[in-house]
Amino acid sequence: MIRIQDLKKVSDYEWEIPKSYRQDMRVAVRLFVTRRLLEAALQDLSIEQAINAATLPGVVEPVVVMPDMHQGYGFPIGGVAATRYPNGVISPGAIGYDINCGVRLLASTIPLEAAQPRLDDLANALNHYCPSGVGSEGLIHLSTAELDAVCRQGARWALKKGMASEEDLRRTEENGCLEGADPGKVSQRAKQRGMAQLGTLGAGNHFIEVDVVDQIYDAEAAAAMGLQEGMLTLMIHCGSRGFGHQICTDYVQDLQSAVKRYGIQLPDRELVCAPLDSPEGQNYLAAMRSAANYAFCNRQILAHHARRAFEEVFAGSGLRWQLHQVYDIAHNMGKVENHEVNGRKMKVCVHRKGATRAFGPGNPELPDVYKPIGQPVLVPGSMGTASWVLIGTEDSMARSWGSTCHGAGRVLSRNKAKKDFRGERLRNELEQSGIHVRAGSMSGLAEEAPMAYKDVDEVVETVSGAGIARKVARLRPVIVIKG
Amino acid sequence: MSKAGFEEVQHTADWALRVWAPNRSELFRQAALGMNALMGLRLQDGAEQRVEFHLSAEDDESLLVSFLNEVLFYLEIDRIGFEDFPVKLNNSRLDAELWGKPIRSIEKPIKAVTFHNLVVRRGEDGLEARLVFDV
């Protein structure tokens, strides 16, 4: 097991594991952590898993780990690994099962004070319009042809169905659609799982939250995003549902033989991979992009449902119920991007698993409104605690593959959380502190207890201190809808 | 310790299970029973539905993951679960003839079975494996 003395301290917010630490490492690992968070991370296998990621063929220096890291399977949650394009590898396990799990934020001009008497109704309406829970099915049952169209068009499919605006798409990563998706590379089994789940939240740590803008740290950036202190916002956290899970399951299984074929040695079978330019790598890339587009469309439809809920509750109240999109960004994705490495432009496949893209100002990928300030980064906290809006920086481009943290990061196992906390009691405590809670399962609620997570404020202070993101606004929850 | 069984082990983000058995088919059975227990699966009374499937894989780990993912697929798509898993294993092939019942409730679903550090080990008392689930 790695010990703290095996790491080199670079600054108060940055540590490094040199590639000499283990013989099979191809590159160093850079950790954006304080000493306290590092000591906590040493309690589980997250750092070992980051070291394992540093053995992937074609990986480019360095593998990066965020302060919200925790143990995953194969690859740590909070990890970022860039591999050389096209002859490095792509690894489904380094992207995760919930492909394009991500966050969407919408802003309103409804003051919390004015909304207060209607928050209970709003919680009911959101719970009614946004189906949640295990294997939950939505109002949309897709045919195979329609599902294929969703895979190719992403959020644009929702636009054609009247469930999005052009402005929503402009304020979504990749305009809500990754090029190169091919539903022909997706199994029938995945399609069966995907057909009935579009427009649903699912279970686990996914949620819809209504927050109030609690504090603004960067007035210019907040103004560009339409965020005003004291006003309500809506946050959606979910991904590609069973569709993405099945695609990851299928390819982790299929690539077990590919690694043998390509003579790739791995420390953990969950890291299976294939060269990006191999048929296997290309097939996975095309299938993964299909799931990513499904997830963009899923969050778009949930946003449409949430708008219906806001309209139902606030129309006629004299309050403007409209919600405008701030941004939608993934935190589980593999993307082919251009980065500068040792002063030279390089095309790489950036694997982000539990890490958010955080492009700095001027990046051509950003919509015009965000080019001067940098890309919005949406960081949900644990249930009942604050969430954050950040922006990407020049430093995140230079030092962390244009990436930053994605959330609070677990510290307690689900099992321990269930033993230590009772769902009913937790719900009562949240309600007493003024947060309206709707949850499908009390044991699920207990697993997501805020005490099972790190302090999101500490995580944000760390990325902000390290310079790989800048604080824009802090949000405080008033409604939580959980599957 | 009994000759075959399962127990939950700690994992920060997800669920993990240790399973042990004197032989492969019992190991697979215990893994599926353990998965049912973790999910808090409850089935309805009444008519049973016969389900038959055949799988093959190049090693025990791949076959075990395939088998458990197959069971999860029936849970999610057909909404049926199984009380027992009498599977037959012959080298790299698995034959299952199971009797399913409609789901009454699931406390918490498992979304996928992973290969994370998965090794089917042979020890003094038989076989052992540790499985990590994505939830």
Task: Characterize the structure shown.
The complex is a heterodimer of chains A (483) and B (135). By secondary structure, chain A is α+β, with helices and mostly antiparallel strands. Chain A has one domain: tRNA-splicing ligase RtcB (Alpha-Beta Complex). Chain A is built from 16 helices and 19 strands. In chain A, the strands form four sheets. In chain A, strands 7, 8, 9, 11, 15, 16, 18 and 19 form an eight-stranded mixed β-sheet that branches. A seven-stranded mixed β-sheet of chain A has the order 1-2-3-4-5-13-12, sandwiched between helices. In chain A, helix 8 runs antiparallel to helix 10. Chain A is globular, with a radius of gyration of 21 Å. Helices cover 26% and strands 43% of the residues of chain B. Chain B contains two helices and ten strands, in the order E-E-H-E-E-H-E-E-E-E-E-E. Chain B has helices spanning 24-39, 60-78, and strands at 5-9, 15-21, 41-43, 49-56, 80-82, 87-90, 93-106, 112-113, 121-123, 126-134. In chain B, strands 1, 2, 8, 9 and 10 form a five-stranded antiparallel β-sheet that branches. Chain B is globular.
List keywords for this structure.
heterodimer, A: 483 residues, alpha+beta, tRNA-splicing ligase RtcB, seven-stranded mixed β-sheet, 34% helix, B: 135 residues, Archease, Possible Chaperone, Chain: A, domain 1, five-stranded antiparallel β-sheet, 2 helices, 26% helix, 43% strand
Quick structural summary:
Chain A is built from 16 helices and 19 strands. Chain A is of the alpha+beta class.
